[in-house]
Amino acid sequence: MSELKFEKAMTRLENIVEELERGDLDIDKSLEIFEEGIKMSRLCSKKLNEAEAKIEKLSKGKKGDLITELFPMDDKNEEQE
């Protein structure tokens, strides 16, 4: 099974929230889609963290020339998973 794209996972997560907010589901179905929502949330978070790691920022080197640096990873995000 191919990995779900961020946009599709986010759309599904939004739909799940709407379904749960309506409040017309029985408890078993609510739990089922809540679990799916947690998976979608984790997937989106993972994708955002991966994207953040790839972002490069421009800064000036010692000679005033522009250099690229890898975007620093935030250790706090990794601890939350």
- What is the strand content? 5-15%
SS element count, helices: 3
The number of strands is: 2
Q: Low-confidence parts lasting 5 or more residues at pLDDT below 50?
A: 77-81
- Indicate the radius of gyration in whole angstroms: 19 Å
Question: Order of helices and strands, N to C?
Answer: HHEEH
Name the helicity range: 55-70%
* Structural class assignment: alpha+beta
Mean residue pLDDT: 81
Overall shape: rod-shaped
Characterize the biggest β-sheet. Answer: 2 strands, antiparallel
Whole-number total of structural domains: 1
Order of neighbouring strands in the sheet with most strands: 1-2
Termini separation comes to 23 Å
How does this structure look, described?
With 81 residues, the chain is of the alpha+beta class. It has one domain. The protein has 3 helices and 2 strands, in the order ααββα. Strands 1-2 form a two-stranded antiparallel ribbon. Helix 1 runs antiparallel to helix 2 (27-54). The radius of gyration is 19 Å and the shape is rod-shaped. The two termini are 23 Å apart.
